[in-house]
Amino acid sequence: RNPDSTTLLADIAEGYFLAAAYPQAEEQLKRAFTIAESAGRSGEVARLARSLAVLNFNSGDEQDALCYSYEAAGISGSEEDLFKHVRMLIAVNLNRQALAALEAAEAGAEKRADPRRLYYLALAGDGLGRFADVVEQCDTALAATARDAGLQQDFRILKSYAVAAASGAQAAAGQAGLSQEEAAELEVYVQQLLSSPARLLFLPPRLL
Questions:
Q1: Which end of the chain, C or N, has fewer beta carbons within 10 A?
Q2: pTM higher than the cut 0.90
Q3: 185 falls in which pLDDT band (50, 70, 90)?
Q4: Quick check: 58 and 207 in contact, CB under 8 A?
Q5: Which residues have C-beta within 8 Å of that of residue 98, sequence separation ≥ 6?
Q6: Distance between CA 61 and CA 98 in Å, rounded?
């Protein structure tokens, strides 16, 4: 196989990534990135930039992770990459920038009610202490995701936390539609969510 094949280099990088050999993975990805960029393959450049963003985040280099994330979102221009970039911003506590990115993206009525968009708006709003907005966004999402138990739980957890932060733990369970027992069971999960920014990132089994 061609040693300069970006597919081959990405496969090698994935092996290093799964083995937590991040410097070696980054070397292969950067080589593939340079090749794709020189060839003018913008879609591939965007995917490689996103992989480099995830890789640098995992290795603790938030500055480079952000640079690659901005680049991937700028080149791609897709809604999916916007959400991935917003996740990165939230993960490094740049909540104002995350809100600005979401609000700058044109969105019709249907997209404004997209549960993913509402989820990231709520997470960023939570980081800024805008708990009333978080509750409103969660209520909108709960009404739109009635048939999705997983999303329902995610938004109920977020709402429970926002209510607790705004008006005290005792009011949280009732206002979020949770029993005291349910609230207690979710408490550990909520704390894990809040204390582990990496949980906000989608890390696919393959880098690309």
A1: N
A2: no
A3: low
A4: no
A5: 86, 89, 90, 120, 123, 124, 127
A6: 19
Q: Can you count the helices (H) and strands (E) in the chain?
A: 12, 0
Q: Alpha-carbon dihedral of residues 170, 174, 177, 180, nearest 10 degrees? A: 50
15: its two tokens: 């092996």
Place of tokens 């429970």: 160
* Mean pLDDT of the chain, nearest integer: 80
pLDDT of residue 206: 36
The amino acid occupying position 148 is D
The helix-helix angle for 149-167 and 115-127 (nearest 10°) equals 20
The tokens describing 34, both together, are 């340079």
